[in-house]
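I would love for you to help me understand the pair of lines that follows before we discuss the fold together.
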Amino acid sequence: MRVLVAEDEPVLAGYIAEGLRLQAMSVDVAYDGGTALEKATTETYDVVVLDRDLPGVHGDEVCRRLLQQGGHTRVLMLTALAEVGDRVTGLRLGADDYLGKPFDFDELVARLEALGRRARPALPPVLQRAGIELDTAHRRATRHGRLLVLSNKEFGVLAALLAAEGAVVSAEELLRQAWDENADPFTNAVRVTMSRLRAKLGEPAVIETLPGVGYRLGC
């Protein structure tokens, strides 16, 4: 899942971003409303975690413009303004959810996962193919009953391949889903991660490489 964290407090923004990355989410950060709008216009996000009191362009205006822009991006307002009237206003502006500060991080993750399911066609909780079972809710993966110990990037890449149901997934799309905006499109990160993932999946080999096109998970 691709997430944009729009939060003007650097320490809190970093805390949220790193925590979400540990949940195998791809996370970008914006510290003001103008930057948040620029990123949301040039990149595709499943969810925007939006501080309401952003400098530059106010969070309320960011929310309005995201709604006008259309698409499937969901908005979770995260703000110290947590009275009932504030929540009602935020939701009426077009936010899909509203969470007051301070907040429980596990609750934030659960709300983002729920919004992510609404941002795109819902996937089954357990993805299966070629003897592989990947439980996205519990972050557990097995092949033929053997537990796979995967890094966050390996888990994200495997989830993307399984979700494609045998279709080809380009390296660029894998970078978008499992990394973030700082990933160099010319890096060999995908190739290295794919090599490690193949080794952990074991034999028979199940990930196909289509040179110049991408990768596909066989039957």
